[in-house]
Structure formats: structure tokens, C-alpha cells
Amino acid sequence: MFKDDNILLKAEIIAIGNEVVSGLIQDTNARYLSSQLHLLGVNVIQITAVGDNEESIVRAVEGALGRADVIITTGGLGSTHDDITKEVLARMFHSKIVVDQKAVAMLEVMFKKRKRDNPEREIPEGVRRQSEVPEAATVLYNDKGTAPGLLFNRDGKKVFSLPGVPLEMEHLFEKYIRPDLLKSQSGVIGHRMLKTVGLTEASLWGKFGPVDPLEKLVTVASLPSYLEVKMRLSFCAASIEAVEARLGEAEAMVMAAVGEWGYGKDDETLEGKIGGWLRGKG
Asked: Does CATH place domain 188-280 in 3.30.70.2860?
């Protein structure tokens, strides 16, 4: 995505689950993770979805380890027969499965609270097995659900395995992954969204002319819709000051070309601009 991305950590996201690849559910986890990783200055180079199949999971994770510094998988840590991610990763990292006593204690506390409403309720055997973890992994204790996350290390690279439930995934990301990545952050990623109205995508670029000078400064993506065309400018550098300076230079180039058709940037809206204009007219 970036021309000079060697200063950035590289990450890949792997969504695991038959329900994802079949289209039964929408994978919102990857969108959340990608946006959060970019805010941390981590370059997401690939997002993959695979089913609950050992060969597919191994191929995806091994491939990611060959390209990225950080791999995050979501899904397949639950208590049903098709949740195989934990066992597959254990075999990949040549690890036996052991009972984690802290995970057991957390399960018991959780179900003790639930038994207040249903005194006969016991911990299902499948749920109890979620306290079994690969010995080679660091356990990411889950205060929001029954399945802990896992962290594996290989040759300086990290594989985080998170539950597929969005609430639990986000909780573990905030509790474990964000602090970990902040310690190894090596660069900054910045974006600037420029907004135009009254132009088609083709006419916008017709006004701009050759795009090469702009693309030498930043990475460019145009996002057309019915009412407007947005242009996202992206750049990475070692400091926020360098990023802002480069985005400012690119913004000036674009706005000079589109002239009055450009109405705003980032969080500015067309409604807000029109409202401000009307207020100015008294």
C-alpha cells in the first residue's frame, strides 16, 4: 500500500470460519482490526478468510508468517465441533494441550454468577474444554467470554489468535495487542480524505491531469458515490510531523486542480458546508 513501508511493522489478518466464507455472516472483525492497526502505524498487507479446515488454516498462517511480522486470526476458538483453530495451531507450533488453571477459575466464577438465575446450570463439557490451551502459547485471558485468546511466537514473529465474537475480540485486542504493538511501534500512518461534489470520478481526474506527480508524494485512492467523489491520500513516515507535512503538500496540489468543486476534507460534510454558507448569508 505504501511505497516506503520498510519502517512499518507488517500485519496480516486471517478470519477463520465456515460461516464467514459461506457469506452467512459479515466479517466485521477484519475491518475493526485493520483500522486499529493503521492507527498504530502497522501496515496491513493482506486479509484472508478461510473455512474451518486444517489444511486451509495451516496454509494461511504459514503463508502469513513468510510475509508479515504480526498475524491475527479470529474465530474457531469456541466449544463446538467445528472450532478447530486452537488444535491446529497447537500442532503447527508442536505443542501439547494443557489445562490452564486461571482459565478454569475464570470459567467457574462466570458460571457461578449465571447460576444465581439458574441454580441447576453447570459448565458444559465443551465450554470447560476452552480452558485447555497449547503449552507453547501465552494465554490471553478473556473477561468478556469463555474462550481465551492465544499468542504464539516464531522467529520474532507473533501469531495472535482471538475469538470470533466481536465484543470478545475487541476486548482482547485492547487489553493485549494494542499495548504490545505500542512498545514496538516504528512508524506513523496518516490519511487525508478530500471531498468533491458535482464531478464524476472521470471528470475529477480529467481536471487533475497526469497523476504521477501526486503518486510520487502519496498513495492515492478515489472513492466515488452518487453525490460525491472522495479522494484518500495516505503516507507513512517515522514521525507524525513528516506525515502531516507530506499530506498537506499533496492536499494543496489536489485542491488547486479541482478548485470550487472541492468542498472539504476528513470529517467535514456537505450539509455542514451548506449550513455555514446559509448562516453567512444571514
From this structure: yes
